[in-house]
Every structure is written in structure tokens, then in C-alpha cells.
Amino acid sequence: MILFNIAPYIGIELDYIKQAIDSGKISGDGNFTKKCNAWFEKKFNAKKVLLTTSGTAALEMAAILLGIKEGDEVIMPSYTFVSTANAFVLRGAKVVFIDIRPDTMNIDENLIETAITIKTKAIAVVHYAGVSCNMDVIMGIAKKHNLKVVEDAAQGVMSSYKEQALGTIGDIGCYSFHETKNYSMGEGGGIVINDSQLIERAEIIREKGTNRSRFFRGQVDKYTWVDIGSSFLPSEIGAAYLLAQLEKADDINNKRLSLWNRYHELLSPLAKKCLLELPIIPSECKQNGHMFYIKVKNLEVRAKLIAHLKNSDILAVFHYIPLHSSPAGIQLGRFNGQDIYTTKESERLLRLPLYYSLSKEQVDYICGSINEFFI
């Protein structure tokens, strides 16, 4: 059976985990956490990066940092994971969904301005499949209307837009290191603070609302509760697992891209016959091989293809059900404009297995099975 996903494993993770245990500190912000933070800051030229307990936690921190409150509105695509919306709903905001672009499955930047009201406080963009949104247009709109931009770059680690790392373009970026991501700590995430004025408060919120970080730096003689916050620090064991992969980040990235390119090469003949559609990568975007998906004619064809692949011992899955059509989405948000592409395109999309330990031969077998289905 070819599984849909297997968490990345390099081979030295257990050694690093043992080092963390032997250090006598396995709670947050130990040596491994600090090394991970520093790695991201150097690699992506980021002002400040802090590991969190999850990508969800990073988004929740972002909502607190931006002062999102009851009555505010946050614009985002409906085609995203529930965490993108939950982070702002938890602060009392209403989420305003808009349609996506059919080529990248990202938020349609040309529809953002029509959704802006006097209540709008932020735009949350999602870089689907590690392919960037049109950040030039989005940042221009944000500047024009004095709005904040949160990048949900959960799938975008090692991707870039015009040579700038995803997560470092908006006011705040959010990463995920869930087991399904290119780099994993099981459950975990990271927040990228691109506004220098937010760095100190981010440390406080992450430390349960205390100024504990300043205490450890010797800036205050004792620490105390100074703001709202929560326990957003991951354990050293998770950070140790992650660091092992970060040290091999380019190798992992190159392997995933080679598998992505293999899929594209082998499935191109079917695309030329208009039997399916392949992902589109805009010229200004550099992607990370996070996901390879195809689009088929409709929901019925997708269901039959999933069953066919399962009979070939291949697990393929579809992705999000659009949030605006969910019970909570109907109650807690609204869709601005028309749903021309969000639902239709989501029903056509099928994700194929893609992970670090997947072999070229397995990709060949998967593509052969897809070819059998259509031909």
C-alpha cells in the first residue's frame, strides 16, 4: 500500500531527542528551540521567528498581536483549513470569505477591495500548496486601506515570492510543522514577526502573558503577568526532531521537487488530452514541492478515480470542504460576492501521495494507475 503521507525522518532525530532529554530541559525555549528559531531567521532573512505548539497556535497569536476584537472583520479565502478562520473568530471577529483563483487555488486578489468595509482590520492570505498569492497586489491594497496582512504559510516553508520567503512578506507569517508538512515536529508551528514593534509583545503572549523572556535575558529582575497570552511554547523534544530536518532542509526540498516534477512529466500527456489538469506555478513564485494535485472533470470522476487508486493500493485524498458552506462558516462568517470557483474547483481537486520517503518508482506506479483509469 502506498500511503498518502509518511512523516519525514532523516535518521538523526533520535540522537537529538536524546540530547534534549540528557540536557535536563525538555520544556520550551531550550537549546534546540533556539537553534530552530535562529535557523529560520538566518535562512529566510526574518526579523523574528518563534516556534509554537502548532500552526493553529501561530495564527491565534497573530490574531491577538493584531488586536482583533469583537465586531472586526477579517478577509480570507473560503478554501482553507479551519484554523485560518478559527484564530480570528476566537477573538470575536467575523470572517469574510471571498472567491479563489482557479489557477493557483489562492485568494483572488482582485476581489479583496470589494469586500473591505469600515470593520475590516486584516487580510489573511493562504499560500495553497506552497505557491504564493499575488503579494504585490495584496500588500498594495493593505497599505492603501491601512490593513494588516497575515500570511498563512502553513504549506509554504522554503517557498518564495519574487525571491522573498513566504511568511516574511506580510505583517505576520505562520508556519506549520504538522506531520503532513515538508518539515515536521509531529505537532508544531512557527510565527514570523515582520513588524519590529510586535516582537516584544509576541514573546509575552507566547509565554502565557508574562515577561519571562526579558527576565531570562536579564532585562528585569523578576517576571510577572503583564498581558494576555497562553502556553504557545513547544517542547524541546519536538524542536529536536525538527532541527534534524532543518539541517537537511535543502536535501528534503530537492527530493520533493524531483518527485513533483516526475508527476508533472508523466501526467502531462493526459493533461494535453484534456483528461485532467495539472498545477500552475506563476513565474514569480518558487514552490517547495509540498503538494501535487490534479483536477478532474467533476466530483463524480474524482470519486471513481479515488476508488480506482485504492484498488491499486494507492491512497489519494481530496482537500478542504470550503468553509463558507460549513455549519460554523455559515454562522460565524459570510461570503462576499459570488462563489464561482471555490466550490467547483475544490470538488475537482485530488491530492496524490508526496513525501520525503516516496520513491521515484512509486510515483511511476501511481501515474501508471491514473493513466489506466483514463485510457
**CATH class bucket of the largest domain:** Alpha Beta
CATH topology term of the largest domain: Aspartate Aminotransferase, domain 2
Question: Into which percent range does the helicity of residues fall?
Answer: 25-40%
Q: H/E element string?
A: HHEHEHEHEHEEEEEHHHHEEHHEHEH
Question: Mean pLDDT, as a whole number?
Answer: 96
How many individual β-strands?
A: 13
Low-pLDDT runs:
none
How many structural domains does the protein architecture include? 2
What does this structure look like?
The protein has 375 residues and is of the alpha/beta class. It has two domains: 13-246, Aspartate Aminotransferase, domain 2 (3-Layer(aba) Sandwich), CATH 3.40.640; 249-374, Aspartate Aminotransferase, domain 1 (Alpha-Beta Complex), CATH 3.90.1150. 39% of the residues lie in helices and 14% in strands. The chain contains 14 helices and 13 strands. It has helices at 13-22, 31-44, 55-65, 82-89, 112-115, 135-145, 199-206, 212-216, 236-246, 249-272, 299-311, 327-332, 342-348, 360-374, and strands spanning 48-52, 73-77, 94-98, 120-126, 148-152, 160-161, 164-165, 172-176, 189-193, 285-286, 292-295, 333-335, 349-352. It has an eight-stranded mixed sheet, with helices on both faces. A three-stranded antiparallel sheet has the order 7-6-10, with no helix packed on it. Helix 4 links the parallel strand 2 and strand 3 (94-98). Helix 10 (249-272) packs parallel to helix 14 (360-374). The longest helix has 24 residues, at 249-272. The radius of gyration is 21 Å and the shape is globular. The protein starts with 12 loop residues before the first helix and ends with a helix. The relative contact order is 0.17.
